[in-house]
Amino acid sequence: MSFSVKPGLAAQRITALLAVLLCVSCSSSATAPAYIGEFIERHPPQVTAYDPSQQHPLTGVRGTPVQRAAIAVKVENSREARPHRGLDYADIIYEELVEGGITRFVAVFQSQTPPNGVMPVRSIRAMDGPIAAPLRGLIAYSGGQHAYSNRARDLGLQLLSMDYGASGFSRDKYRPSPHDVIGDFNAWYAEADENHQTPPDPVFQYAYPVSQNTARALGTPATLLDVEFSSYEHPHWVWDATTQSYLRFEKDEPFLLEDGQQFSATNVVVINVAVEWIGVPETVVLGSGSGHLLTDGYAVPITWSKPAWSEQMTFQGPDGNPIYLTPGNTWIELVPHDFGGSYTIS
Predict the structure, then answer these.
(1) CB neighbours (10 Å) of residue 53?
(2) Which of 32, 264, 293, 304 registers the highest number of CB atoms within 10 A of its CB?
(3) Structural domains in the chain?
């Protein structure tokens, strides 16, 4: 499978971004290097075992885990929705294609919550239940079609819908509707029933020491990830050695939060997924496929699998073993490879 964008556009983006961050890119293939098998034999990852009871389940950050469920929040990402509030507190964020070629986020919070809430909260889509179901927690959204809400509920999630009278929703008087809905986590957690108070199982495994993460152990240097969801939406990520994280851009503009800070991710996982047309695009998070993990300034080919909607998506490296990430937050790009989407890494 080819991962490509228009060469001229990619070159323009790389030039602009490197000028901003003074990064130096080196070319990396989107497939595993030919010598990867030999490399694995000579340098197998040696990851130190660590007690999962002493790390936060969705970030791998060391510390006493918070004893509460995960809350998945549906967040808008149109131009009118920016800048966002509270996304920097999320443990994991999934980005998905929706109608009109734009994307929306499923932002998962558990280890910490933003003191001023999250904004803007928007409506649920068909794929959101299957994305969030393995967390066995709550899902918060402004409204949406009954079929989508019913699917999420039937998969075991507790629904927090503004349209159905759940508490914890308010509006920002300085923003136009419908881009103004704020979510309050204290109110949402107060609504959690007895079946939705358990911390989630980990989605990923994490490397201790950090230098033994799968990308550094088995991959190649990578300073730029350029993603194209559609002709309208093409974010990219640039490695920043100073913060040891990937900085997000929308086209060539920094993706800024409400407080003026640029969003950054410790790990970026980009995977190829199918999309079905059901009157709107539905990302199919079921089956298996290919992708890449980017962390610590390196990228490595991976595969993913999810045998059932209610089961967690799992990830394997080129050696067939589970991938190890750097402890910290993770952004997951669900790229619609059969619906015009693509990505490049360099």
Answers:
(1) 8
(2) 293
(3) 7-50+203-345 (no CATH), 66-191 (3.50.90.10)
Q: How far apart are CA 306 and CA 316, in angstroms?
A: 12
Q: Of 60, 61, 11, 17, give the one whose Cα is nearest residue 262.
A: 17
Question: How far does Cα 56 stand from its chain's mean position?
Answer: 17
C-alpha distances in Å from residue 6, one per residue of 2, 68, 337: 12, 45, 15
Instruction: State how far the Cα of 179 lies from the Cα of 161, in Å rounded to an integer.
Output: 16
Q: Are 235 and 249 in contact (CB under 8 A)?
A: yes
3-state secondary structure of 133: helix
Tokens 């920016």 found at:
82
Per residue in 145-197, pLDDT (tens digit) is 999 999 999 999 999 999 999 999 999 999 999 999 999 999 999 999 999 99
Q: How far is CA 37 from the centre of its chain?
A: 29
Closest CA to 207 of 293, 127, 278: 293
pLDDT at 52: 67
Taking residue 68's Cβ as centre, other Cβ atoms within 10 Å add up to 20
| Tokens coding 137 | 């927690």
Q: Torsion over CA of 136, 141, 145 and 146, rounded to 10 degrees?
A: 50
CB 122 within 8 A of CB 76: yes
Residues 6+ apart with CB under 8 A from 314: 304, 305, 306, 322
Q: Distance (Å, rounded) from C-alpha 235 to C-alpha 251? A: 6
Can you list the residues of the chain whose pLDDT is less than 70?
Answer: 1-52
pLDDT value for 47: 63
Alpha-helical (H) ranges within the chain are 7-21, 36-42, 128-132, 146-154, 185-191, 214-218
**What distance in Å separates the CA atoms of residue 275 and residue 286, rounded to the nearest whole number?**
11
